[in-house]
């Protein structure tokens, strides 16, 4: 026994328009979803370590080194150059971000005549100790951020994103 499946003209047009509209909406929305989600799903470039300096070049006085790497934003790749302050504390390598934790200005080592053994932010007079600890009574409320590091074959390799000190 066959059933009679008659579809009216109105039902057919409704189904056809809904299907076509859904297909067109998916065609517009899917690229936007992929644009937003794809970079998250890609392997992060921040997991890569960058060769920055030779261990033999480091002293107990912080020195500025340039760190160059490619940063993949998912839709374009950008060449990035950042300055990093690196020094030795005993046998330990310390790599600090030059970005002041107060308002994001750039700190430099030994530029404050009154405190030549500290990092100094000339914009708001923030100060940090050699290990990156913020000096109490100055605007920064947290230490300079540190870079993850590894020493391989006499070279210092850094991660590309500094982390807050705990």
Instruction: Please identify, by name, the CATH architecture of the largest domain.
Output: 3-layer Sandwich
Q: Segments where pLDDT lies below 50 for 5+ residues?
A: none
Radius of gyration over alpha carbons? 27 Å
The name CATH uses for the topology of the largest domain is Rieske Iron-sulfur Protein
- Total strands: the figure is 9
Beta content comes to 25-35%
Order of strands, main sheet, comes to: 1-9-8
Helix proportion of residues, in percent? 10-25%
**Name of the CATH superfamily of the largest domain:** Rieske [2Fe-2S] iron-sulphur domain
**What is the total number of structural domains?**
2
Instruction: Kindly report how far apart the N and C termini lie.
Output: 77 Å
Query: Number of helix segments?
Result: 1
Oligomer: single chain
Order of helices and strands: HEEEEEEEEE
Structure report:
With 166 residues, the protein is of the alpha+beta class. The protein folds into two domains: 41 residues; 115 residues, 3-layer Sandwich (Rieske Iron-sulfur Protein). The protein is 20% helix and 31% strand. It contains one helix and nine strands. The protein has a three-stranded antiparallel sheet, with no helix packed on it. It has a three-stranded antiparallel sheet with strand order 2-3-4, with no helix packed on it. A hairpin with a 2-residue loop joins strand 8 and strand 9. The longest helix has 33 residues. The protein is elongated.
């Amino acid at each position: 026994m066959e059933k009679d499946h008659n579809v009216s003209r109105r039902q057919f047009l409704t189904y056809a328009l809904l299907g076509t509209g859904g297909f067109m909406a998916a065609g517009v929305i899917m690229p936007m979803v992929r644009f937003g989600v794809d970079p998250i799903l890609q392997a992060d470039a921040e997991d890569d370590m960058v060769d920055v300096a030779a261990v033999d070049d480091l002293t107990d006085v912080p020195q500025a080194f340039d760190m160059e790497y490619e940063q993949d934003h998912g839709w374009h790749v950008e060449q990035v150059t950042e300055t990093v302050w690196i020094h030795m504390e005993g046998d330990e390598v310390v790599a600090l971000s030059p970005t002041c934790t107060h308002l994001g200005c750039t700190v430099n080592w030994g530029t404050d005549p009154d405190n030549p053994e500290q990092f100094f932010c000339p914009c708001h007079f923030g100060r940090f100790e050699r290990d990156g600890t913020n000096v109490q009574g100055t605007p920064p409320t947290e230490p300079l951020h540190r870079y993850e590091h590894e020493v391989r074959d006499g070279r210092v390799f850094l991660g590309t994103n500094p982390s807050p000190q705990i």
